[in-house]
Amino acid sequence: MTPTLTAFLVPALPAAAALFLAVFGRRMGERSSHVAIGALALSLIASVSLLVGAFGHEGPLVHATVPWAVVGGVPIEFGLFVDGLSASVLVMVAAVATMVFVYATGYMKGDARYPWFFTVFSLFTACMFGVVTSSSLLELMLFWEVMGLCSFLLIGYYFERPDARRAAFKAFITTRIGDMGLLLAVALLLGRYKTVDIPTLLAELAKEPKAFMWMICALLFAAAVSKSAQFPMYIWLPDAMAGPTPVSGLLHSATMVAAGVFLVCRAYPLFVGADFLPMIAWPGIFTALYGAVLALTETDIKRTLAYSTMSQLGYMMVALGTGGLVAAVFHLITHGFFKSLLFLSAGSVIHGTKTQDIREMRGVGKTMPITGACFLIGALALSGIPPLAGFFSKDAVLASLLGATTVQPVFGGTLLVVGLMTAVLSAFYMFRVYFGVFRGPGRKYHESPRAMIAPMVALAGVTVVAGAINLPGLRVSLAGMLEPGVVEHAFPWLMAVSACAAGAGVYIAWESTRLRRALHGTGPIPPNLQRLYGGVFLRPVFAVSRFLRELNLDYILENLVVAPVLWLCGLASRLDPDVLYTAVFVNGVGRVAASLAAIDVTVVDGAVMAVGRAGLGVARGSGFVDTRGIDGAVDGVAGGTMALGRGLKRLQTGVTANYALFMIVFGVAIFYVAWWLAR
Amino acid sequence: MKGIPVLSVLLLIPVVASLVVLLLPGRMERLIKGFTIAAVALTFGWSLLVLSRFTIGSGAMQMIQSVPWVPAIGMSFKLGIDGLSLPLIMLTSLLTLLCGIYTWRLDKQVKAFCFLLLLLLVGMLGVFLALDAVLFYVFWELVLVPMFFMIGIWGGANRRYASVKFFIYTLIGSVVMLLGLLLLFFWGPHTFDMQAIIAWGQAGKFTLQQQGWIFGALFLGFAVKVPIFPFHTWLPDAHVEAPTVGSVLLAGVLLKMGGYGLLRVSLSALPQAFAAFSPYLAVLGVIGIVYGAAVALTQKDLKKMVAYSSVSHMGFVVLGIAAANSAGVDGAAMQMFTHGIITGMLFFLVGMIYERYHTKEIARLRGLITAVPALGILWVFASFASLGLPGLAGFVGEFTSLMGGLQVFPVITAFAVIGIVLTAAYFLRTLQAVVFAPHEEDSARYEGPHTMDGTEMAAVAPLAAIAFALGVYPMLFFSIVDPVGRALATLVGR
Hints:
The structure holds 2 protein chains of 2 kinds. By secondary structure, chain A is an all-alpha fold. Chain A has helices at 3-28, 32-54, 84-107, 114-133, 137-155, 162-193, 198-205, 210-227, 236-239, 245-250, 258-266, 268-273, 277-297, 301-321, 325-353, 364-367, 369-383, 389-407, 409-438, 450-465, 478-482, 492-519, 528-551, 553-574, 577-622, 627-641, 643-646, 651-678, and strands at 62-71, 74-82.
């Protein structure tokens, strides 16, 4: 099989599965997941073979196009493009998706819309593969937007719930606002260069003036920001947790939200060439910190993970903003694994405890040990505790920030300090959840079914070892594939600092949990010194977090943006020209018509009625015509003179004739006007 | 098959059929309906034959046939098609076929309705086929009459007002348009042959002043039809009151006559005036896009919302035409076609919803997905197709027009994205309420079967299939239209 065919099969198989399930899903019932998982497993195999092929391959492994449309004689092409970047992301997406699909067979068991779920889920996976393997920017946008549709349908999966509907609406509209940037960029570039082939576009754009490149970057970045839930477009992501947990575990953690980061990676030479990187770094680092702070006081386990996701995506963005392409992709991949692991574990907990509120979950780890272990592995990875995957990738991100200090000390230094602070906070919020939910005494729960546990264990295994894909010094590594020839610098002291930061976060979480237990009377009272310690260090942090959450950017945006838009729309419909027309034209004409009608009624009707009466008299005399005939005649004549006013009262008589008359009279008049003008 | 005047036969089938319907006794309703369906199906079949004989990839007029009519003033019965008119002819015959099938459900004055439907088909096909200015005008006016009666007799509660408004608006528009057509004759080559007039115009033989006058006169007629902001106000009323079939054809085909006229006559024969006026046209187009969407967002009536969405979507047609480059013309042609398909589908679905719930009030429509799942899913599909989701047909036209607009009027065009976001907002808001939200206290009740019947499925399924196929792979459409787009683009030098 040629790589091109293999690359085609990766998105095509789940797409075919989605189409098949859309038609036959209902009849297949719970067997529909077999089709979806079967297709996906084949995609996974194909992705792995592409990755193997991409190792050590000079240039892109696959670059094939077919014409999709033709405008101005120039074909618009769709196609496949697979290089090291796409192959490595493909494998991550395929692996995570396979695990989540298997998990979903357990999680969604007995759901009334089970086949529908797997239909949309398959379609989504196909689109994510499509985004990653697109050679054309237009095609990328197509998959990108259909992914948005899938997100809409899956967030609103429990559509009976108003909050789910609202969240789905918000997610689609918020991302669509950003997507307008992508739309404008694609339309602009296609019009200008007559091609949408990404490598060609990047080559063409490199010759443009910086300002133009910068504008295109800004447009593309707008789409990336809203898809990857960066400040201030993140507002849809926490609400998106209203969807079923497998959805959160696949779309809103590992894959779809990472598409924004992927877009920036794909067009990275453009962002570098336009000097756009600081514009990526600042929102990125802010989002990383902001998300971590918000996650601190969130009480819903899935929303906590959502804030964590935006924070980690912020890490990827800030890495990109400091030239760390490899670090960003590395973190994208490891984050995909451990964040989906965390979501699946959280789903398992929710499945067992029937609540999402972490305050109501106590000591879950005792009776759900595997779930507890999996969550712990995910939490350790996210916190950046060695030797789990997250440690290496987060270290790579921090190394990239450190690298920036050599060029711009203030810029890089600020980013590095905030990045380390965020690392502490990440470990803190993660272990606050872990200690609070899994440790300590608690009720008895049932461990989740094997269909859910098995993929969690598999993901946990991957999370432990995934750091190895970019070990420095290895011949076969991510860095070697993405930036061949570039020597990655390792900073052992930075590794130590980052590990210490993570450890500090875990420790603070432990103290904080003890403190809270003490305050709630469920644990031993810590020494006064500890209480003081907790009060001095923790209270301000929690206060800030609470303040930010209560500030509720959502609410502000809604009132500053949405409300005025709706008000303007209402104004527009009130200012409808129709109203003006009615006031000026119709009423004016109406008045004339009314006076005409008065004349009509008194004079014409009078005359007609007189004739009618006379006729009636004759008719009575002769006993020939009935009253209806006379009335009809009267109405007919009156209707004839008042066609405009009375409209269709007598369709068969008055207006048809009038219409013909109109046409003839107007036609002749117009003809004369034209003739006179043309003379 | 050689020697058969293919296009005349296309026009002749509905003419003969309408006469036959007149002769059939009015009580034999099923026979009349069956005959009408057969006739429109034959017309559609014949249009497929026309498609198969069309030389794809040529920008020239094809299958021209001309019979002298009044030679003294250069009037002839002249028909022909090119890549611009062919898709519109296919659209017309397809939508009329589906409307014919849907008419099977009708039980009020069947004979008159079937007659008017066939008459309407003659007029609509004629407009897109005619290559003689007088013929063009006659068909243009012919279309008005059946539609007027359809709204006036089979319409809703406020049908008189709506039909008279429609009548006055379009009549004034078309009468002024006639002035323009006559000026083309007097100032031009003294013939009504449109090809000769276009050749005259492209040779630059109209002075700029003459072009301006003619353009203005024609513009009014076309602008009312499209409708271009601010001439659109007849449209929501007409749609809300029109019967389902009337709405489908009104939105699906009649609006396209305006866009077709702008391209066929205004742009082709008056390129300099067109170039001078095009920035204003672009502004009006973008205003239409944003304004139509904004007003649609606040509508409480489902049908009125779809009607305003038409105003918004036709704005893309106007924008593409104003750009007058190949992307703009291709996009406008594509948008006209896909708008016909998608909005036709939306109006069919509104009709089906109304038949079940006896209301079109969004606030009272709930839970469609549980009441009639197929209808709910189709509504979701049509909404996403209409809001321009890539992968479905609506996107292709929108995107291509936008691309054309950005090349010529980048700043003006960029504002159109506001309309795109608003469009997503009103469609999603409505579909969440109508399709997904569960029943409430005061929601309209529907207790009938949970399925759609055969005529309903037959009316919308082909449209859904086309909306999907064209969105995934629009190549065939572009290969038909693009040669014309390229030819027209050279006129204005874009």
